[in-house]
Amino acid sequence: MPRLAWALAELAANWRGLKKSPAGDGRPILLLPGLANGDSSMVAMHLFLRGRGYRTSGWRLGVNLGVRSVGQDIERLIARIEAICAEAHGEKVTLIGVSLGGILARVAARRRPDLVREVITVSSPYAGPPTATNVWRHFEFLTGQKIGDPAARAMLAEAGMPLPMPATSIWSRSDGFVNGDICHEGDRAGARAIEVVSNHIGVHFRPQVLRAIAETLADSRSD
Question: Are strands 28-32 and 167-172 parallel, antiparallel or unpaired?
Answer without folding.
Answer: unpaired
